[in-house]
């Protein structure tokens, strides 16, 4: 497989295979529908098929790949209907979570959110799309966890694999301004710190919908970017 890189030599091979292949998916080098051929990946990385098999299972569990019996595993493809359905639910979840957090934001959660915004800024500066997307989705996961409502966290955990697939598959090569995306998340954090629950709820709901012009951006945030 082109672009996989140098053979792996250290232990925990399945973790390394997972990280390598996941990076190719997240960065858009592997496209929706591409087949993950275990024998080919194993050969390119200089490992046996066993760690590759485990890595692919993890990718399927995470929602980045689909396994089709008797055909194999493929980079996840998401229909526009699935995207619309996930987005509609996400708007409700994030609006509810933002309201709860703004009403009683604890310093530890705010610090965790701020750290993810900083990760996004650094990733944008380095052009590291994979790191940016990981920090981005972690920001929204922390929001749900900070709501102190265990059901919100549970719902998010059920949705996250699909959201990861949506962000990677629906628009894997986003051509907008990643630095501006990081700034927008900083603005979202400010709405939480303002203790204005209505403002925070409206901002996060609009952000999840991908409303153009919201928080000073206009790239349609609904195309797979959290």
UniProtKB/TrEMBL annotation:
Residues 11-78 form the HTH gntR-type domain. SUPFAM superfamilies: GntR ligand-binding domain-like (SSF48008), Winged helix' DNA-binding domain (SSF46785). The keyword Transcription applies. Gene3D superfamilies: GntR ligand-binding domain-like, Winged helix-like DNA-binding domain superfamily/Winged helix DNA-binding domain. Keywords: DNA-binding, Transcription, Transcription regulation. Pfam families: FCD, GntR. The keyword Protein transport does not apply. InterPro entries: GntR_C (IPR011711), TF_FadR/GntR_C (IPR008920), Tscrpt_reg_HTH_GntR (IPR000524), WH-like_DNA-bd_sf (IPR036388), WH_DNA-bd_sf (IPR036390). It comes from the Bacteria. This is GntR family transcriptional regulator.
């Amino acid at each position: 497989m082109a672009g996989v890189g140098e053979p792996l030599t250290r232990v925990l091979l399945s973790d390394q295979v997972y990280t390598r292949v996941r990076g190719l998916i997240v960065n858009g080098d592997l496209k929706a529908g591409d087949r993950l051929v275990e024998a080919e990946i194993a050969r390119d990385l200089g490992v046996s098929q066993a760690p590759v098999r485990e890595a692919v299972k993890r990718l399927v569990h995470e929602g980045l790949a689909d396994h089709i019996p008797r055909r194999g595993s493929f980079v996840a493809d998401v229909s526009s209907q699935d995207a619309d359905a996930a987005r509609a639910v996400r708007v409700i979840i994030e609006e509810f979570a933002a309201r709860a957090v703004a009403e009683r934001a604890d310093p530890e959660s705010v610090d965790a959110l701020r750290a993810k915004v900083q990760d996004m800024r650094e990733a944008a500066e380095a052009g590291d799309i994979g790191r940016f997307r990981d920090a981005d989705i972690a920001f929204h996961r922390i929001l749900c966890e900070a709501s102190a409502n265990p059901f919100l966290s549970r719902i998010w955990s059920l949705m996250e694999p699909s959201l990861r697939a949506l962000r990677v598959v629906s628009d894997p090569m986003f051509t907008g301004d990643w630095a501006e995306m990081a700034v927008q998340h900083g603005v979202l954090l400010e709405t939480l710190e303002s203790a204005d629950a209505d403002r925070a709820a409206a901002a996060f709901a609009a952000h999840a919908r991908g409303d153009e012009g919201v928080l000073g951006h206009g790239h349609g945030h609904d195309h797979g970017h959290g």
